[in-house]
Specification:
eight-stranded antiparallel barrel; 10 strands; about 120 residues; about 45% strand; 1 helix; Lipocalin; mainly beta
């Protein structure tokens, strides 16, 4: 569990690499050691709970703000929220957090500076 705690920035969501657009449009998650998770889907702020047991990462209810975004960024955010809805196999490999969904699609996250709590 300690390997996951910290701030992570998505570089790939469900097998789709992210472009180098504006930093504020990149999905990111911060996993607190107390089971809280917060971050951004790329458009909206999100917050929820998480648990990791035997390499399986699950999220409790995740809530997000409802700000409008570009169609591209909104679609990316939907992919992130869909990812968080199901159980994921989680592993830290070569410094990257790899999340694999039930369909075998891999999302890759790299360490990021902590997000400010709002």
């Amino acid at each position: 569990m300690d390997d996951v705690v910290g701030s992570w920035r998505f570089t790939e969501v469900a097998g789709v690499p992210l472009d180098d657009g504006p930093e504020r449009a990149h999905p990111a998650l911060t996993f607190d050691g107390d089971g809280q998770v917060y971050g951004t889907g790329g458009v909206n702020r999100l917050r929820g709970t998480w648990a990791l047991a035997d390499g399986v990462l699950t999220f409790g209810p995740v809530v997000a703000t409802k700000v409008a975004g570009t169609p591209e960024h909104t679609a990316r955010e939907r992919a992130v929220l869909d990812l968080l809805a199901g159980p994921l196999t989680a592993a830290v490999v070569d410094g990257a957090l790899l999340l694999t969904d039930a369909g075998g699609r891999v999302s890759r996250l790299l360490p990021a500076p902590p997000e400010p709590v709002r």
